[in-house]
Write a structure and sequence with these properties.
alpha/beta, two-stranded antiparallel sheet, single chain
Length: 174
């Protein structure tokens, strides 16, 4: 069983591909345990209410998918000082690696990675190669985590994860 965190960008993709969201839901808890953090849910809540997807509010669809995948209270990870400090260290190292985005642009991504690292999750899935999975960011996570003697979670792009979900769902006839 893989302990995973889906970045906010992944929920945006899942809302457009409800069939895949349903497949992931069927694989929980057989193959995956999906974790979240308030930062992700808050980003989803920031989706303007006016945006519609077909007949429904995109914001409500995003939140429903999040809530259905992050099913248990203890799967909604708690933000703490350790996560905050690690995220700050990631940003300092990101700038040393010539990362071009501001702290404000990177803050939520760094919190998500720090939480996944502190809680020792297996995989972080994102569709964000510009910030969260940029080469400067990946180097920063690796460098800081090595300094502290902690392991990186694996990083998976959305399309790789989608292929894996489809492959695994065939095992269960979904």
């Amino acid at each position: 069983m893989k302990r995973i965190m889906l970045d906010t960008s992944v929920y945006g993709r899942l809302v457009e591909d409800i069939g895949l969201a349903e497949k992931i839901g069927l694989l929980v808890p057989k193959e995956y345990v999906v974790y979240g953090i308030k930062t992700i849910r808050e980003e989803l809540k920031d989706t303007p209410r006016k945006i519609r997807l077909k007949e429904a509010s995109k914001r409500l669809l995003l939140l429903r998918i999040y809530d259905s995948l992050v099913r248990k209270d203890h799967h909604d990870l708690k933000y703490n000082k350790l996560i905050e400090t690690l995220a700050e260290d990631y940003f300092k190292e990101y700038k040393k690696e010539k990362g071009s985005l501001s702290n404000e642009e990177m803050k939520n991504d760094l919190i998500i990675i720090a939480a996944a690292t502190i809680y020792q999750l297996d995989i972080v899935v994102s569709d964000d190669e510009r910030s969260m999975f940029s080469s400067a960011a990946i180097k920063a996570y690796s460098s800081v985590n090595k300094r502290y003697g902690i392991e990186n979670p694996a990083f998976s792009l959305y399309l790789e994860f989608k292929k894996e979900v489809i492959r695994r769902s065939f095992r269960y006839g979904t």
